């Protein structure tokens, strides 16, 4: 859950999000090294006397051609690795279908039984004490922890986007098309997200709440839900 004046990402709750945060820190260190080098060269240029010595011009051109290429490689290789990890879905333990509407979500658990429900934002006037305004819903998505969850995302009317930052998930919901993503919640908890594609007047009022529970609690919940 994000806090006021928070400068960093939310705490990672899935292996993919941990990888993304690691790559973010790696890219920042590369950017810091580049900025430091440029600042040093600018300072050196402004403080030293100008000369017309061009003996080493070929060496300099070689350096400023090879060095940016090496920087791009150090960024591209880990980036491609994470992209392939995010795209790979191997034998999911559970399949969840998320359907975007104006302005609520419909969820279908078709692996277990015909379990379908709509998830609406709870209005501020009806919000229980201690719950988050504009983020809490009447029916949460319940998933078992330490299990690979495949999410099939689509929309019924306009473009939407199913996004949960702490799980490292963001997939567009497009009418007439099925997109898929996956995540693995590495700890129990409640994770909040929102529609991340402008979809109309109430775009800000269709939150996403994913609750990760132990497998036994998930089985009890699924058995009690009406089909």
UniProtKB/TrEMBL annotation:
Its cofactor is Cu cation. The chain crosses the membrane at residues 21-42, 62-84. One of its GO terms (cellular component) is mitochondrial inner membrane. It is found in: Mitochondrion inner membrane. One of its GO terms (molecular function) is oxidoreductase activity. The keyword Translocase applies. InterPro entries: CcO_II, CcO_II-like_C, CcO_II_C, Copper_CuA, Cupredoxin, Cyt_c_oxidase_su2, Cyt_c_oxidase_su2_TM_dom, Cyt_c_oxidase_su2_TM_sf. Pfam families: COX2, COX2_TM. GO terms for biological process: ATP synthesis coupled electron transport. Residues 1-90 form the Cytochrome oxidase subunit II transmembrane region profile domain. Residues 91-224 form the Cytochrome oxidase subunit II copper A binding domain. It is a multi-pass membrane protein. It catalyses: 4 Fe(II)-[cytochrome c] + O2 + 8 H(+)(in) = 4 Fe(III)-[cytochrome c] + 2 H2O + 4 H(+)(out). CDD domains: CcO_II_C. Keywords: Copper, Electron transport, Magnesium, Membrane, Metal-binding, Mitochondrion, Mitochondrion inner membrane, Respiratory chain, Translocase, Transmembrane, Transmembrane helix, Transport. Belongs to the cytochrome c oxidase subunit 2 family. Component of the cytochrome c oxidase, the last enzyme in the mitochondrial electron transport chain which drives oxidative phosphorylation. The respiratory chain contains 3 multisubunit complexes succinate dehydrogenase (complex II, CII), ubiquinol-cytochrome c oxidoreductase (cytochrome b-c1 complex, complex III, CIII) and cytochrome c oxidase (complex IV, CIV), that cooperate to transfer electrons derived from NADH and succinate to molecular oxygen, creating an electrochemical gradient over the inner membrane that drives transmembrane transport and the ATP synthase. NCBIfam families: CoxB (TIGR02866). This is Cytochrome c oxidase subunit 2. It comes from Myiothlypis fulvicauda (buff-rumped warbler).
